[in-house]
Amino acid sequence: MIMKPTNEMTVSFLSCSANESFGRAAVAAFAAQLDPTIDELSDIKTAVSEAVTNCIVHAYRDTIGVIYITCKLYENGQISIRIRDKGCGIEDVEKAMQPLFTTSDSEERAGLGFAVMESFMDTLRVTSKPGKGTSVTMHKTIKRRQAEKNT
Amino acid sequence: MIMKPTNEMTVSFLSCSANESFGRAAVAAFAAQLDPTIDELSDIKTAVSEAVTNCIVHAYRDTIGVIYITCKLYENGQISIRIRDKGCGIEDVEKAMQPLFTTSDSEERAGLGFAVMESFMDTLRVTSKPGKGTSVTMHKTIKRRQAEKNT
Amino acid sequence: MSVRLLLKDGEMTAILSGEIDHHSAREIRGEVDEAASKVKPKRLTLDFSGVQFMDSSGIGLVMGRCKLMQMWGGSVRIANLNPKIEKIVSLAGLNQLCTIVKDVNDHEAYE
Amino acid sequence: MSVRLLLKDGEMTAILSGEIDHHSAREIRGEVDEAASKVKPKRLTLDFSGVQFMDSSGIGLVMGRCKLMQMWGGSVRIANLNPKIEKIVSLAGLNQLCTIVKDVNDHEAYE
Ligand SMILES: Nc1ncnc2c1ncn2[C@@H]1O[C@H](COP(=O)(O)OP(=O)(O)O)[C@@H](O)[C@H]1O
Ligand SMILES: Nc1ncnc2c1ncn2[C@@H]1O[C@H](COP(=O)(O)OP(=O)(O)O)[C@@H](O)[C@H]1O
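Above: the input entities. Below: the structure tokens describing the complete assembly.
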């Protein structure tokens, strides 16, 4: 399914924990153009918050790096969100994505970041190169309110 | 005055008018870290809205280009905002900045964009190269609420 | 952004709410002008009480309505400006072009 | 984010409000643990009624408090979860670790 996005934005910011709320707010402000419900917007914010936090806690652990987010909106009401870091990367992505799996013990992580992203978004794809960084791509289709009313 | 920013973000997006509200919302979400008053935040949103609109209406008139915003926060409560386009540029910046001057007659422009930026922010600097693009840099220092209380 | 139009004794009131920028000003302009061109009211009041945000595009909007109303000898009033909007309005010197009313809160009060 | 702590009959209640993410969870942890370590309550209730946003960092926060309370034989209750928080809580299977209470709205009701 190759579609041209109708709108597109990129935001990048430092991996300090104060920016967790900024990252999800920026994506939410952009996603607002699709006229999502409060519920849908909350799902998107939660998923973005997980991915951004992973960059801060895992990818750039004990250092400050840059987090990149690209959002695209499509005519059919779909939003795609890609969150990228140039941090430590993940050796075994499949294992990392298992619920309750975490490599962090100092911070109180629950090992649920990927599980939440998966459950709150329609699709989730994770690619990673150890030593190079990680990229998380998520999609969600916002229901058309008008269409909803008509059916 | 050379200071190192304590936090920094960059956002870029297409020059469609639907993104005017996104541009100011993204900057406001970032500026929120300085704990501004509602008044100060409103000033920042207004100034950003003017600069972003200028990129859409003037710089990329009849085309779609990319608008770049960089925000930096400083320890003393200062925010610097740079809004850049690669559009048509401005022949005579001094003239363009005069209140009520506008080159637009089809759109209902008041010629007050620069005047509003100047009046709502502490500083405003505009540089432009005809055919290359324009860069608008603004600063504002957010008052420390604690300090305010103490004096 | 939304516009609610009231008509009474040949006077039109447009109650604006939401955010006014270049994007939304176009829509407002469309709705107001369509109705005003049919009715040709002797006075148009733009009520800003529900407007949370406005940049200089709002000034262009008022100026444009002033021009339109002049075409049939009508006038424009703007009402219920918050301090931020007032600041932009005074930068523009809009008091030269139209009447500024402070406290029209009650729509019964639009005589 | 803010935490309000109540103490009654050896039971502690932390009323949380605002957004819970990794950033704010640290602050909450600090405030709750400082008070709890002094008092060593037999039960800690985390009240989420004022929480508008929470990601999985909130789960880590609850798990961590469960561990802490176990150290002196105490227990943890979580209360007033909105549907989104409930979804994350059930992904985590938190009902295995602590008691989930639905309708503690009135603080008199924290027996
Ligand atoms: N961006 C990332 N960079 C490096 N490692 C990551 C990244 N995201 C996740 N991981 C790894 O995957 C594991 C599981 O992630 P997640 O499900 O979000 O749980 P948690 O963040 O609570 O540990 C993490 O503990 C970490 O080892
Ligand atoms: N980013 C830009 N690119 C090209 N020209 C610009 C840009 N910003 C402003 N200008 C020029 O400066 C003039 C004055 O701008 P401004 O004070 O914002 O008023 P207005 O936008 O209402 O015309 C514009 O009419 C335009 O000719």
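Note for the figure: Residues 7-150 of chain A form a domain with the Heat Shock Protein 90 fold (CATH 3.30.565.10).
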